[in-house]
Amino acid sequence: MRCGGDPERDWRALEANFGVSLAGGKKRFGELRKLTPNATERMITLQLRKLEADGVVARHVYAEVPPRVEYEMTEFGRSLGPILQTMQAWGRAFKVRRSTEETAQQESEMSAEGAVG
Questions:
Q1: What CATH number does the domain located at 7-116 have?
Q2: Which has the closest alpha carbon to 19: 71, 84, 112?
Q3: Residue 22 in 3-state DSSP?
Q4: What CA–CA distance (Å, rounded) separates 113 from 48?
Q5: Cβ atoms of 44 and 32 closer than 8 Å
Q6: Which residue ranges make up each domain of the chain?
Q7: pLDDT tens for residues 66-116?
């Protein structure tokens, strides 16, 4: 996931990424951080808090040393599953399309250079 462009798009991408990640079960903060390497810890924390406040994600704190915190989708959050799966499939198709277009553009530029030289 790329962060750093349009902030609103970055937040939405982060939300969708967490939804897909948490659909597989509970995750610790460190696991979520590894799944979103381009996002800052602050960005991840703020987004998780927002998702928790919206009732999409549940946060579980365990009284251990060191402290352990896990996040999981709530029942309400799991209802987003089909939507997130559709978005994920669309994203994969978009990447393929974009890659194909870029390759065609590069080939076109190379053949134009060959015709000139």
A1: 1.10.10.10
A2: 84
A3: helix
A4: 50
A5: yes
A6: 7-116
A7: 889 999 999 999 998 888 888 888 888 999 999 999 898 888 888 877 766
